[in-house]
Hints:
By secondary structure, the protein is an alpha+beta fold. It has helices at about 10-15, 25-35, 45-60, 70-100, 115-125, 130-145, 150-160, 165-175, 210-215, 220-225, 280-285, 295-305; strands at about 175-180, 185-190, 195, 200, 230, 240-245, 250-255, 255-260, 265-275, 310. The protein has 2 domains: about 5-160; about 165-310, no CATH class. The chain is about 50% helix and about 15% strand. Strands 1, 2, 3, 4, 5, 6 and 9 form a 7-stranded antiparallel sheet that branches. Strands 7-8-10 form a 3-stranded antiparallel sheet, covered by helices on one side. It is elongated. Mean pLDDT is about 80; it is low at about 1-5, about 40-50 and about 195-210.
Amino acid sequence: METGNENMEPSTLAVFGVAGTVGELSKPITKLIETVGAGVGAWYEPIGIRRRGRAEADVIEMTAHANAKAADIAQRSAIRLENRERRRQRNIEKGARGAVEFLPGSVSDEPVDEDWVQKWMQGIEDVSNERMQIIWSKILAGETGKPGSFSQKTLSIMKTIDEPAANLFTKLCRFAWQLSDEKPQFFVPHVKSFAVSDGFMDFRILGTPDHALNEVSYAQRLHLESLGLLKTDPSGLKISGMLRPGTSETYYYHGQELRVWTEGQPRKLEFMVDLLTPAGNELFRICGAEHHIAFRDEFVAALRHQGLLVEWD
C-alpha cells in the first residue's frame, strides 16, 4: 500500500518532531501526518490567513495617510490578528506533535473524516494549557488509530472544558464501573442506595463511607452534568439485575472483572447510579483516572456481607 509520505515536505516532518527520513516513518505516524494534513490547507491555512491579514493591512496603510487615527487602529488590529493566528498555529502544531506519543501500535486503514479534523483544529487552536493540550493530543491519536472513537459532539463539549473541570471529571472517574466489555457504559454507584432483594444495604453498618460522594459532591456532579459529561438524577437512575442460581452479573472496574452471583433463592440486585454520557464514556478512556482501592475493596466487602458471592478475575 502506498502511504503517500514520499512527497511530504521536510518542514511538515519537523512540525511533528519526527527524526529520520520520510521513507522511515511508521504507519501510525504517517497516518497522523496525513490526517492533520488533509484538513483544507492543514498547517498552512493559518499562515495563509496571516498573509492575507498582512496584505489587507498594507492596503489600509497605503490609503490611511490622510487619516492617521484610522491607520493606527488598523495597524493595531493587524498586529492583534497576526499574533492570534501565530498563537493558534503554535497550539495546533503542539497538539499534533504531542499526539505522536499516544499513537497505538497499529492503526486502521480507514481515513479520519475531514470535517472531524477541522473540528479538532478549531477546538485546540485556542488551547495553550498544558494539561488540556495533552487531552486534545490523546483525542487526535485515538481517532487516528480508530476513526469514530471520538464524536464531533465530544469535540464540541471539549471546547467548554477547562482544567479544573477536567480534573474534576478525572476524580469522578476513579469511582466509575463499567457495564459491558464490548460497548462500554460507565456508571458511578450511590453506595448508600444499594439494595439486595427488598432491603437496602446500609453501608454505615460496616463503617464504610461513600467515597465517591465525599470526594465529588452533588453540586460538582451537577456541574459535570451541565458540561455534558454526566447524567445524574437522585430520584431515578438505577442499575438492576436478577441473580438466580447458575447465573451471574458481571461488572468491570478499571480493567478488573467482577462477577457476582448467588446460591439458593433468586435475589434482585439494585442500586442507584450516575451515568456517564456518550461523551463521558469516550473521554473516560483517556482521562487518566486511577482506581480507588478503598472504594473497590469496601464495595466488594459489602456485597459479601449481604450473602452474595463475589469473584475477581
